[in-house]
């Protein structure tokens, strides 16, 4: 009992809060009523009733006005027949569908009383009057029930007062037609009114509950869609909607890519109450850079955001998304790295920290392959030599002998603190001349500089290249 009351209250509150949507839903339901089987079935019943009344009045009772009974329900029948055609030419009529339903039932009641008038007018004797009473009295409560049992109003009290009006109008017309017939059928009128009130209330609750369930289900789907969009890309959502498996929505075969490993220098030394917010805003800026030019046929974007690692950010250019422009893969990767440094500097400026904060990026080109985790949450990931190598290139700044070279070069350029972009030899050799001019070369075999330094996980590397930015 308490649950039912709670549900009723919840439906009512929801419909009040979403009154415009509920009204639109009621108009739609009323339009369906006027064009689908309920109203068409009603038309068939009206036609059959008219024919049966005509046959009885004409053949059995020889009523001279019998033919007029065929036109008693011409208005409600015309409403149902003409409504679909009217909406084709004047679409705004659909806004008044709820009122047309009321008019449809009102004209049925008027038509019923009109048929009574015709039948009683043509009766020639007291015996015939009594016979007509018996035949027509059984129709009174049914007519009222059917005309008061359905309505499409946002509040039930409107439907209730409409039903009261229908009943009083029917009583008034019946009184004008034949007061004796009214007194003979007052119980049937009460039965029809109360049965219609009960039926209309049940129908109203059904329509309201259906709207609530339909709307909340749509809200749930939208919420689910919004939350899933935080986990997967738009093209993945579309393919999943079409019935595809998650594992088929991203490339899994081996490919080649330039991996970008971003890291903040000495991030553990940052002491600020909004450090977490700083990294959140920074990585959101990076994501916007990665998603530039995103499209799914074929898959392409500025870069692919692979993961965030606390104070680091890893992305790839060339796999699984193709680059957005026709430049070489190396040019696209360096261009993306420079955009990231620009976004980083802007976030640092907004952060307004008391000491300089600088970052480093390592770029390496090699094989990568996509994969989904084998169990649990099936997140997409990349593995391969390119990731390992890019990480090691970014970490070169931690080698004292290499760091000394960076500092010496920065001093010549007048940088007290600096951002560092370190690229693999393959990446450098693939750059256009304009980008090559940015970089400075370090010969790893030059003992005078680095003591025959060997690059981990890239043993064939002879040179590394770096670019310092303020």
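Q: What amino acid sequence fits the structure above?
A:
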């Amino acid at each position: 009992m308490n649950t039912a009351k709670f549900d009723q209250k919840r439906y009512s509150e929801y419909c009040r809060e979403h009154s415009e949507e509920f009204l639109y839903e009621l108009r739609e339901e009323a339009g369906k009523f006027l064009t689908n089987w309920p109203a068409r079935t009603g038309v068939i019943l009206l036609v059959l009733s008219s024919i049966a009344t005509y046959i009885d009045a004409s053949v059995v009772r020889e009523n001279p006005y019998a033919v007029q009974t065929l036109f008693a329900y011409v208005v409600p029948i015309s409403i149902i027949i003409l409504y679909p055609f009217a909406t084709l030419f004047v679409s705004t009529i659909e806004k008044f569908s709820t009122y047309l339903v009321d008019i449809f039932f009102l004209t049925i009641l008027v038509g019923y009383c009109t048929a009574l008038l015709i039948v009683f007018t043509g009766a020639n004797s007291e015996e015939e009057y009594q016979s007509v009473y018996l035949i027509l009295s059984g129709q009174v409560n049914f007519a009222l029930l059917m005309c008061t049992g359905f309505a499409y109003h946002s509040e039930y009290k409107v439907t209730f007062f409409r039903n009261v009006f229908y009943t009083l109008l029917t009583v008034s017309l019946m009184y004008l037609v034949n007061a004796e017939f009214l007194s003979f059928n007052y119980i049937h009128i009460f039965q029809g009114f109360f049965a219609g009130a009960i039926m209309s209330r049940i129908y109203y609750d059904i329509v309201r509950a259906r709207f609530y369930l339909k709307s909340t289900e749509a809200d749930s789907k939208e919420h689910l869609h919004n939350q899933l969009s935080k986990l997967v890309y738009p093209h993945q959502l579309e393919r999943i909607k079409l019935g595809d498996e998650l594992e088929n929505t991203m490339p899994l075969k081996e490919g080649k890519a330039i991996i970008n490993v971003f890291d903040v220098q000495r991030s553990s030394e940052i002491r600020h109450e909004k450090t977490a917010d700083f990294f959140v805003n920074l990585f959101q800026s990076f994501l916007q850079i990665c998603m530039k030019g995103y499209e799914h046929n074929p898959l392409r974007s500025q870069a692919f955001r692979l993961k965030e690692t606390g104070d680091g950010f890893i992305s790839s250019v060339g796999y699984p998304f193709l680059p957005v422009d026709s430049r070489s893969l190396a040019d696209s990767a360096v261009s993306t790295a420079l955009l990231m440094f620009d976004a980083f500097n802007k976030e640092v400026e907004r952060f307004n920290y008391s000491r300089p904060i600088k970052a480093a990026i390592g770029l390496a080109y090699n094989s990568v392959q996509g994969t989904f985790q084998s169990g649990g949450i099936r997140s997409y990931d990349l593995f391969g030599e390119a990731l390992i190598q890019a990480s090691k290139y970014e970490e070169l700044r931690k080698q004292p002998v290499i760091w000394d070279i960076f500092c010496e070069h920065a001093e010549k350029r007048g940088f007290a603190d600096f951002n560092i972009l370190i690229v693999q030899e393959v990446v450098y050799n693939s750059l256009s001349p304009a980008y090559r001019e940015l970089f400075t070369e370090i010969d790893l075999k030059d003992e005078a500089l680095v003591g025959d330094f060997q690059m981990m996980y890239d043993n064939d590397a002879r040179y590394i290249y770096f670019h310092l930015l303020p």
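Q: And what stands out in the fold?
A: The CA atoms of residues 31 and 123 lie 40 Å apart.
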